[in-house]
Amino acid sequence: MTSAAQFSERRKIWRRIVRNPLHLFTLSMVALLVLTAVFADLLAPYGATEVVAYPFELPTGQFWLGTDSIGRDIFSRLIHGSRVSLYVGFASTAIAVVFGVPMGVVSGYFGKLTDTLMMRTTDGLLAFPPIILAMAMVAVLGTNLRNTIIAIGVVQIPRFARLVRGMALSLKESEFITAGRALGASHVYLMQRSLLPNLTSIILVQFTLTFATAVLTEAALSFLGLGAQPPAPSWGSMLLVGKTLVSTNPYLALGAGSAIFITVLVFTLLGDTLTDLLNPYRTDR
Amino acid sequence: MKTDAARKPILDIRDITTSYHIRRSGAQKATTLVAVEDVTLSIKPGETVGLVGESGCGKSTLGRTIIRLLEPSAGMVSFAGQDITHFNHQEMRPLRQEMQIVFQDPYASLNPRFRVRQILYEPFRIHGISKAVASQKIPELLSLVQLPPDSLRRFPHEFSGGQRQRIAIARALALEPSFLVLDEPVSALDVSIQAQILNLLEDLQTELGLAYLFIAHDLSVVGQVSDRVAVMYLGRIVEEGPRDAVFNSPQHPYTIALLSAIPDISAAQGQQTRERIILTGDLPNPLDPPSGCRFRTRCWRGDQLCVDQEPPLAPVSDSLVACHYPGPEDSGARS
Amino acid sequence: MTRYVARRLLHGILVMWIVSTAVFVIFRLVPGDPAAMTLGFDASPEDYEALREELGLNDPIHVQYLRWMGNLARGDFGKSITHGYAEVSSLVFPALGRTLELAALSILLAVIVAVPLGMISAIREGTWVDHIARVFTTLGFSMPTYVMGIGLLILLAEVFPLLPPGGYVPFGEDPVKHLSQLIMPVLTIASVTAARLTRFMRAGMLEVLSADYVRTARAKGLTERRVNYWHAFRNAAIPLVTEVGVNFGLLVGGMVVIEQIFIWPGLGWLMIQSILTRAFDVVQIAVLVSAATFVIVNLLVDLTYSWLDPRIARS
Does residue C193 form part of some domain? Predict the structure, then answer.
């Protein structure tokens, strides 16, 4: 049509990022967090479980945030902790997507009895407060990081299924789906090739929001002693130590608390940013 | 057209009834909506049959039943001599290459996430035709519908309505079908664009020998392209015949009313201008159609017979007409 | 209306059935049976076998399921082996009461703050009041309750030792101490909840303020003040009921961490203690009860909503 149409999608998105300072900030923070997690071993001055000084050293040029109750460098442990958090966040959200998205697509596409059964099941699962369900599962499966990931992921499955099902339900009536049927496409083909590409942006946005929730839940479970076990450098476990020693060394909790807060904030903002960037019908001024 | 009469029809439907089950919230039982009732129609190779009626009269449902996107609850559909009435998805698959559909809204019928190249590749992919063959044919399709070659890497939303409809037509033609259902293919377009698309469809028909079922609510559009015309009212065909017969000497009051609403065609042809007939009343509720003749609630000829008996589709001059009192408006057919 | 109530009740019962089935599945069908989990790894095979028999674990799974559902239907939550055969209900329900106390007070405080704040923020959209309110809500949205709780704990119990760092004394025993122990957990939960409710209230008000009938009311010559406070408030407040209900339901389950921080012996605290002492007969009932509370609260909210806005029941 006009020259605006000549821009490729990618360039359009790029322009939206550059023009919005909040998008730029959010994306840089996400990049920073991810890079920290990936290169934790190179960035952290000391190892995660390395005893480097006396306990409870105050912050110095050598130990930026001081040392913890057994003399490990707190700053280094926070950096290593980002890896635990982001890994759990990613892996558990991936579980939710891998199971929740197909459930939602099938449920919305076929409707009728399939849909009723699936939706009543999710009704039941959604009646559990998320952390309670996760706690129950971890309690039964055993407390370790792998089970934490499974529990957090499973809790989020019905949420993904619900969201995707709603979208699939409205999309399946579209004429391009009927056109696909007229071409002789199978149900699997239509769900996979016609419905799914139209769901990617909403799934992506939900992914980031679920990711934030997963990071939060992992820290909570570890704080309760049901997640990562010592000496793993989980922010939640570090917060637990901080809380235990709050009357003698109140600052211990601050680093881990801030790290959790910032990560959750950044990924929540990323959800807003993606919603804005991926809207194909938005017109740029 | 006389020469066509000898040929065997590519599509033949007999006494087709298609119904929907509707469950209204709060209602205890599902009600049945009979969208198409007792429709018989046949289409010969290379022929265009126009199907007209108001929206909601069941013409789209009929179109979708014919290509078996819907399953009829009674009657028979046969395509190229094969009874496909109850074919399942797998059995229909090879036939999908032979019959295709173009929808009314070219904004809804193209997957917004696909580039044109992917949209046109879909038919080949679904039918397991190799990518090499497809990539050879896709540019040909594009030139067939007169779109520039660089369209392939663009998304549907970058095109105008007419261009999108060309893409939809190209997709329908990809597998070289012999029969197309055109479900109001131009009613969403501007008048100037309509003519272009209609010309394109006619050119394609001549070039590829296609048969069309052309569905529209606009009789003038149907008049331009059809060899034969069928008029539908509330799920039934009320008049069917050669285009000229239906247009020049309509027999059913409903057809007469529809034709009278077309501005100036007859005047331009130097014939007497018809008096415009405005139908009073709304289309009756299809869930609860009137007894006897369905059109009687809006008809000026109706009497007790029309209330008591449903008129059968019977030959009147060159056409088939379902009316107890057929005939041109001022011929005084009523005794 | 009656039919709507009946339908919602039926749906609630259906959900509770699914919930109890899910609990049964989680606690029966996973590796390591309840007997092994209760006894730990170093139990003798004789003790293990005796406990299996006592718990009925040697019965076929469908018999166990029917027994589980039957007991629940009769309101029999069983006795806890690890708690000296105490009635599980005598452990769970007092804990639930303490959690509800915390949740109710927090929600109350949150509503008291959020409703006026959200309204002012909407009415004075774009002014500094609005900006401050929005910063508050954005931070509150991402602030994990437990980080907030520990922050308060450091501030109000350590840096400025004004309040006890946690614990629980029944109101009847020492009302002043009871209330002072309530302050920090309530503040924590209320501030995070208030952030959500403020955002909700602000959005609702903004939507209503731009709606046609408010403009009509303005045209009819009502003063600006009456337009804002009356029409808009009424219409924004009704959906808020749902939001409050959802938050309340979530709080009952989600306060585990807060109860742990402030050593408040509510349902979440009981769950953690029971998990750590392997009292799975208590854990499963605690999980069930917290989900049931959520379902019941949602049911009450829906009914309230349909009473406030009868269009819902009719559609």
Answer: yes
Q: Are A132 and C287 in contact (CB < 8 Å)? A: yes
Interface of B with A (CB under 8 A): 64, 67, 69, 89, 92-93, 96-97, 100-101, 103-105, 108-114, 122-123, 126-127, 154-155, 157-160, 168, 171, 175
Distance, CA of A268 to CA of C199 (rounded, Å): 15
Residue C45 counted as domain residue: yes
What does the alpha-carbon distance between residue C285 and residue A136 come to, in Å, rounded to a whole number? Answer: 11
- Find, among B4, B10, B3, the residue nearest to B211 by Cα: B10
Does B21 or B133 have the greater pLDDT score?
Answer: B133
Q: Are residues C154 and C202 in the same domain?
A: yes
Could you tell me if A54 lies within 8 Å of chain B, comparing CB atoms?
A: no
- Choose among A197, A272, A20: nearest CA to C199: A272
Residues 6+ apart with CB under 8 A from C74: none
Q: What is the pLDDT of residue B83?
A: 93
Per-residue pLDDT at A1: 40
Burial class (CB in 10 A: 0-12, 13-18, 19+), C300: middle
Question: CA A235, CA A249: separation in Å to the nearest integer?
Answer: 17
Instruction: For residues A197 and A182, give the distance between their C-alpha atoms in angstroms, rounded to a whole number.
Output: 19
Tens of pLDDT along A217-251? 999 999 999 988 888 899 999 999 888 888 777 77
Rounded Cα–Cα distance for residues C203 and C123 (Å): 11
Give the mean model confidence (pLDDT) for residues A127-145.
89
Instruction: For residue C46, give its domain range.
Output: 2-76
Domain identity same for C272 and C128: yes
Number of domains in chain C: 2
User: Quick one: which H or E segment has residue B270?
Assistant: none
Residue of B nearest to A194 (CA): B111
- What number of residues does chain C have? 315
Percent of residues, chain B, with pLDDT higher than 70: 90
Contact call for C252 and A140, based on CB within 8 A: no
pLDDT of the residue at C113:
93
B2: its two tokens? 């006389």
Element (H, E) at A134: helix A130-141
pTM, two decimals, is 0.85
Q: Tell me what pLDDT residue B140 has.
A: 93
Q: Say if C287 falls within a structural domain.
A: no
The predicted-structure confidence for B276-297, as pLDDT tens digits, reads as follows 777 777 778 888 888 889 898 8
